[in-house]
Amino acid sequence: xxxTINLKPELEAGLLQRAAALGMTIEEYVTSIVGPxxxxxxxxxxTGEQKAEAFRKWxxxxxxxxxxxxxxxxxxxxxxxxxQ
Length: 84
Known about the structure:
Elements: H1 9-21, H2 26-38, H3 48-60, H4 76-79
Helix pairs in contact: 1-2
């Protein structure tokens, strides 16, 4: 299907510039923007409440007695060697 849209020259130039920067044609770039707005990626068919309930069930299925990490274990000093 083809759609003709009259754009202001500066808008067209901006779209062309962004498409070129991504190595895409303007048609590919506009489709990549419009597609997700029209067809959401979530195809689960669940409502927000159903998703929240599923997440709670998933979280409850994990052990609640896992030991916490110490402050040092999550500090920068424990992750990076300052000699580099």
